[in-house]
Amino acid sequence: MKTKKxxxxxxxxxxxxxxxxVSILLLAAFLGNFTVDSWNWGVMDFxxxxxxxxxxxxxxxxxxxxxxxxxxxxxxxxxxxxxxxLVWTELAVDVVSKLVEFVF
Length: 104
Description:
Elements: H1 6-35, H2 43-66, H3 70-93, H4 95-103
Helix pairs in contact: 1-2, 2-3
């Protein structure tokens, strides 16, 4: 008889929960494609955004589970959110590239 580790079930539950949240967010974006005229995402836009959201969600979940110090948790979560926003804005409108060109 095989026994499963508690961590394995917890990780599966976390992946499932993050996947549900990402699916709901992508469903909202999919519906936005039909209701907002200037919103026209293609298939790759959904794949990239789904990947970004999933990786950020798993990172936040692991941070919450592995770090006991609330200050460290907060700083890491803010870092993950900031990195997510930087990548998203760079992919959307090249904000970071334009800022670097402006500064240098």
